[in-house]
Write a structure and sequence with these properties.
about 90 residues, alpha+beta, 3-stranded antiparallel beta sheet, two-stranded antiparallel sheet
């Protein structure tokens, strides 16, 4: 899969009236099944999760219901993001 195809993705941000909720949507010009497959593949997801000044990202994914995910991005400091699939 070539992620350079996603560089032209259109982004839109919406902020709630209260100003405390941010929704980020990304329209990617690729079939949904390819995006879904890429999201489940740790190597591809690590590429996806490297915005701006991130020098390295590692990803662990267990995509089963209740399965855990862990994303670690390096911005000079280590930033961890963990959760579970629902």
């Amino acid at each position: 899969m070539r992620w350079s195809r996603f560089s032209s993705a259109r982004r839109r941000r919406d902020v709630s009236e209260a100003g405390n909720v941010l929704v980020v949507r990304r329209v990617i010009p690729v079939p949904r099944d390819e995006v879904f497959a890429a999201w489940l593949d740790p190597a591809n997801r690590a590429q996806w999760m490297r915005p701006g000044d991130v020098t390295k990202a590692t990803v662990e994914v267990d995509a089963r219901v209740g399965g855990k995910f862990r994303i670690v991005m390096i911005h000079g400091a280590e930033v961890k993001n963990t959760g579970a699939s629902i």
